[in-house]
Amino acid sequence: MAVGELYLSLAFLQKYQEFNYKCFCKITTMYDSKFGCEHGLKWRNERLDTSLLNTDRGKCEHFMSKLETFMIQLEGGDKLRVMKRLEVPPMDKITVITKSLICEIKLLAVIQQAY
Asked: Is there a contact between 94 and 88 (Cβ–Cβ < 8 Å)?
């Protein structure tokens, strides 16, 4: 059960990263078109494309594949049973945003307690 929840959280995190990146790209494009300049494109190339939000996407996928392998070993090699157990429900934008905000609040609380 806990592994399934972790897998689901990683799937939400992955969707959140993609959603965030797309939104930032749209914002910079709208900025450039509204003000008739290319500062948004420059900012996106310098900051967004080189940020951890964009460059660190593979870690979620890697960890999810490790969890799948772990679950396959626990289920005795029955991959269909594992995939059914780890099934991620379809996620619309509202679900992604809500879950992402909850994860961010929890993360901020943990960071605040650490310092």
From this structure: no
